[in-house]
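Justification of resources, computational component.

The compute hours requested in this renewal are based largely on the per-chain cost of generating structure records like the one below. Each record pairs the submitted sequence with a full C-alpha cell output. That output is archived, and it is also reused by downstream analysis tasks.
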Amino acid sequence: MNGITRFLLKNAFAVVLVGFALSSVGAYYSFHLFSNLRTDIEELLPTDARSVLDLKEVRGRLESTNNLSVVMFSSHPEGSKRFVDDLAAEVKKLPSDVSSGVEYKINEELAFFNDRKSLFVQLSDLKRIKNYIRAKINYEVQLYNPLTIFQEVNTPEPRLDLRAIQKKYEGQADSYSRFPDAYYASTDEKIRVLLVNQPGQSSGIEGAKNLKKSVSDLVAKLDPKKYAPDLAVRYTGGVADMIEEHEALIEDLALSTVVVCFLVMVAMLIYFRSIIGTFALFASLFAGTLMTFGLGFFEVGYLNANSAFMGSIVIGNGINFGIILLARFMEERRKHKGTPRSIAIALEKTFSATIVAALAAGLSYGSLILTSFRGFRQFGIIGFTGMVFCWIAAYTLLPALLIVFYRMGLLRKAVKPHKGIVIHLVSSMVKRFPKWILFMTAGLTIFSLAGLPRIDASMIETDMGKLRNRHSAESGSVHWSTFVDQVFQRYLSPLVVLPKENKNVPLIAEAVREAKAAAGEKSFIVKVSTIADFVPSQQVEKIKTLNEISRMLPQKLLSRLSPQEQKQVKDLLSPKSFKRFTENDLPELVKSKFRERDGTLGKLVLVEPSLSPELSKSDNLIQFVHEVREAVDKVEPGAAVAGTLPVTSDMFESIVKDGPKATLFAFIAVFLLIVILFRDFMTVAQCSFALLMGVLWILGFILNFHEKINFLNFIALPITFGIGVDYGVNIFQRYRMEKQKGIIHALEQTGGAVLLASFTTVTGYGSLLIASNQAFVSFGKLAVLGEFSCVIAAVISLPALIWYLQQKKAKHERTLANPVRNENMV
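The structure output for this chain reads:
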C-alpha cells in the first residue's frame, strides 16, 4: 500500500481530474441507459426462451397483439350508446401506425351468421328435418284424405324435437348473442367496452403512450358529460397495463434515489460531523456509481424491471467501503497524526477487510451472471460492476480528494471524538449480557432450523396479481380490467399458435382439442378456434338438402302452419343459406383475428384459457402451457405458441432452475474467498459463523412466516451471502490485528462504521418498500431482513460468543494461577 499512498500523495490533483472526467463520461452513458427502460415481463427471460422467441415471431407476423380497452360507465344506456358510436367513428380516423382497428359491437357479424345459420347445422340434422317434413306432409295427406277418413287406420303422427335441435346450435352463439343490441356491454348496459388494437409495428412503450393519448384526446374532445351526466371513461387492457407499470417504475425509481441520497447524506454528516469529508465520500461514491452504469450501457444496453432499481442499491452498498476508510482516517486524525500519515494508515489497515467485503458482495451479485434468466443476470452484472468500481473509487478518488482538500486548507486540522451512542449501547450489552445474547441466538437458530423441512415448490409466489403495481390494482388498469371480464366473461388475449404450414392448422387444432378432452374438467383450455370454425363444411350437400326442403314446402302449405312454425321455416330457409361462402366472404372483424401482416388468412390457431383464478397458480399455469405445447409439438415441433401466459410459465420454471444454482455458487465463492484471503482458521470460522447465522435466520423468517419467493426477491438470498461476510470481516480483521486489546475494543472502534454502513445498505434496500410495484416491495422486505440478520450476527451474536469465551478462558487462567486461594475458598 505504500506505493499507492505515495502515488496518491504525489498525483492527488491528477487523480481527481481523471476521476471527474470518467464520471462525466459515465454520466452521459448512464443517462442513455436509464432512458432505455423496458418493463415487459419477457425482458426478464433468457433471449432463447421459447416463449420469448414465439412472442417475437407472433409480433412479426400479426397486425396486432395488444389492445387498449376503453371502459364506459353510465346509468343512461342510450347516452352511452351514442357516445361509443361517436368515439368509434373518431378512432377509425386515427393513422394506421397509431391504431390498427376498433371493436365495440358485432351487429354485422351476428347478422352475417344469423342469415346463414342453416349452413352451420350438421348435415345429419338437416336430413332429419327434411325426413320429418316429408313424413309430416304424408301424415297430413293421409289424415285429411276423404278416401281414408272412414277407415279405422291409426296413423302415428311424426315427431321431431325441433326445439332440442335449435338449442343444440344456440349454445354455440351464446357468448356473442347475449350482448345487448350486439354492443360490447353488460346485460344492464351500464358498462360498455370499446377495444382499440395497437399496431404490431408500434408495440413498444412509445407506441402504447401514443395510442392512449390519441384516444384520451378524442374522449376529451367529445366530452362524455354531453352524452350523459354520469358517463365516466376509464382505460385498461395490455396497453394501459404497460403504461402504468412503466410510469410507476420511473416514479418509484426517482423517489427511491432521492430518499436514499438524502438519508445517507444526513447520516454521514451526523456521524462524521465533517462537511468536507462527507462531500469527498459522496463524490467518490457517485463517481463509482456513474462509471458502473456508464459501463452498464455497453454491457446490457437497457434496464429491465429487475435492474431498474440498481441505482439506489449500488449507492446503498457501494458507500460501505468509503465509510470504513473515512472512519479509520478520522480515527487516526483524532490521534493528532498528520493527514498524509492518517491516509496511509487508513489505506493500509482497511485494505484487506474492504477488498474482501467488496469481492464478497461482488461475487454474490456476480453469481447471478451465471444464470440465463435476464432478470437475475442484469442485476448481477450491474451489482458486480458496482461493487468493483465503488471500491476502486473509495481507494483512489476518496483519499485523493482528502489530500486536495487538505492542501487547500479546507480539511479541519482536528476533529473532536464522536461518541457513538448506538455502538456504545451495543458493546455494553455484549459485555454485560453475553449469556442472554447467546441464549437468544441459539433460540433464533433452532427456530430457523425448524423451518427448513418446509422448503418446497409452495415457496414460489404464484399469484402474479400480488406482484403488480399497487395503485393499478386499487384504482388503475388492473382494477378496471375486472369490469371488462364482467362484460366478455372470457379471456380476451388467447394463446396464438402459428404453424409454418397451413396444412397443420386443422391438425394442431384437433390435437389441442384432444388434449382438452383427455384432461377433462381439470383442463384449463376453454376453446380452440381456427378460421375454419367460421366456415361450415359440406356446404354443397347442405344447400342441396335445403333446396329439397324448400321444394317440399310450397306457400299453400306454409300458410297452414302456426306463426311459430312459419318463423322456424323462414329462419331455416333464409335466402343467404342457399349460397356457398368461403373464408374471404367472412366479416372483416372475424378475418382480422386470423390474418397476418402479409395478408395470409387462417394460418393460426387461437387457444382460449380459462378465467379461473386457479390458473394463476404456477403449477396449474405450467401444466396448461405444457399441455398446449405438447399437443402442438406432436403435429409441428417448435411451432410458435405465444401469449403472456407462456411467458409467465417460462419465468416460473426459469426461477426454479436458476435460483438454487446462483445461491449455491454465491455461498461457495464467498466462503472460498474468505479462506484464500485470510488463511487463518479462527478468522475464517468467525466470518463463516456470521455468514451462516445471517443466511439461516432470513431463511427461517421466509419459511416460518410463509413469505413467498418471486422472480425478484429471490435475489435477496445470494446477495445476503456477501452482506453476511461484509460486516463480520471488518470487525474481525480489526480484532485479528489488535487481538491483545480484545473484541470489545474492536467492536467499539469499528462497530460504529459497520452500523453506519449497514444503515446505508438498509436505506438502499428500504427505499424499495415505498415503491408501488409489489415485487420491489417484496425484495426490499427480504433484503432488509437479510441485512438485519447479518448485522446482528456480526455485531452482537459473534462478539458476545467471543467475549464469553474470552472471559471463561480468563477465569480459568486465574483459577490455575491461584490454586492455593481456591483451595482455601473450598
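The first strand starts at residue 64 and ends at 73. The two ends are 57 Å apart (CA to CA).
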